[in-house]
Specification:
Shape of chain A: globular
Strand content of chain B: 35-45%
Radius of gyration of chain A: 11 Å
Oligomer: heterotetramer
Shape of chain B: elongated
Distance between the termini of chain B: 42 Å
Helix content of chain A: 25-40%
Number of strands of chain A: 5
Structural class of chain A: alpha+beta
Largest sheet of chain B: 6 strands, mixed
Helix content of chain B: 25-40%
Number of helices of chain B: 3
Number of strands of chain B: 8
Distance between the termini of chain A: 37 Å
Strand content of chain A: 25-35%
Order of helices and strands of chain A: EHEHHEEE
Chain lengths: 80, 155, 155, 80
């Protein structure tokens, strides 16, 4: 399945991208994370501190993804 | 329960408009203001990016959780996106409660949660060449291009 | 160090005038508002008496102590004397600091000290006959006569 | 020595007075407190929780008084 992941802040800067398209075999956030680390090595050291948001809600890594999901990688935020 | 959440472009008004709630004994207002330096380097301001509608949803959810934990009457939160210059207000949180202690605790907790769980990011904007010393020509550390709203907004 | 202390007649303005301080990252404003009941009984407001100039001196001294303990930039405190009706502001404390946590701690401490060490007293004013139920004709528990400023101010 | 003591709040209410004139032998706040309790019995139960202010500053009970001092009895305050 092909999914698109939005990137922000330090992750967008490390990847040099605001959105990345990833092909995943197993359709979980965990598999997506592994694939992101493989595809964009500069992201790898940041992923430990990141969470995924699916359809604008934080989810656990075992969350199953479907093609219509809006997926975002959320690292350290800095509002205020 | 009265919760108002607003994310808007540019700095918030320097002066908060009147706000209270019937029966309140304590009304707290916290203004977060952009400071003239970041990590010891002079800046001209901050550029904020918010991932919407998630940012508004998270702010609303945090407000609702605090209502349950503290005996609050009303919460109103405003946050900027885009550029906010030094000395300008980027974040304003107002809480009305019957008593002071619960309002102060909620104000502190809300802001801790904001800084942990709300998808808003800031990028420092350094002075342009000639505007400051030691940072000539540097222009923050933000991401460029790829449809960056912030990138598009830079002068 | 910037400390402003003001005790004035009647309620404070419902809306605080603009106030900040150069370099501040956090500006807090606490409004203490008269609530419509006291000890479970309806009231129309509170009458405040201040022993001056001691009240102003104590407020100034507390502000100075907090400057030393926290890294504050400015404190401004205002308190009413005389009558303040329900829903009106009797106490407004504003603190400018570089960071939020120190400002919040100072706000809480200042108000604790106010309620312990500043010679200001409040007296509840109950509704006049016909204005409320269960307290007809009662008019608070204040001291009358003997040169009471508060007594003189009652309508 | 004759001194005048300002009363406020609960103490003024208990005494029914806003200012009271007291003749003291020993010129300390402690002696003044004892004399206040003797002269106005309704004040006695409140005095334990009161402080004296002399010339607009809180003082200890061993403070010596002079005729020109402005003396106030400060009980529980209730600002805010």
């Amino acid at each position: 399945m092909n999914v698109s992941v939005k990137l922000f802040g330090a992750e967008a800067k490390a990847a040099g991208l605001r959105e990345v398209s990833v092909e995943i075999g197993e359709t979980t956030c965990l598999a997506l994370r592994d694939e992101l680390a493989r595809k964009i090595p500069a992201l790898a050291p940041l992923l430990e501190k990141c969470r995924f948001a699916v359809n604008h809600e934080f989810v656990e890594l075992d969350r199953t993804l479907v093609a219509s999901d809006e997926i975002a990688l959320i690292g350290m935020v800095s509002g205020g | 329960m009265s919760v108002t959440v607003k994310i808007s472009d540019g700095p918030l008004p320097a002066s908060a408009e009147p706000w209270s709630f019937p029966g309140a004994g304590a009304v707290l207002c916290f203004d977060g203001i952009v400071r003239p330096s970041e990590d010891g380097r002079p800046i001209v301001g901050l550029d904020y990016e918010a991932y919407e509608p998630m940012a508004t949803r998270m702010l609303t959810q945090i407000a609702q959780e605090l209502f349950e934990r503290h005996a609050l009457l009303a919460i109103r939160v405003e946050h900027s996106r885009g550029h906010v210059g030094n000395g300008e207000v980027s974040y304003r949180l107002r809480i009305a409660s019957k008593h002071r202690k619960e309002g102060i605790a909620a104000l502190d907790e809300f802001t801790d949660r904001l800084k942990k769980d709300v998808p808003i990011w800031k990028t420092a904007r350094a002075p342009l060449s000639g505007e400051g010393s030691g940072a000539a020509g540097r222009e923050g550390s933000g991401v460029r291009g790829q449809g960056s709203e912030l990138g598009d907004r830079r002068e």
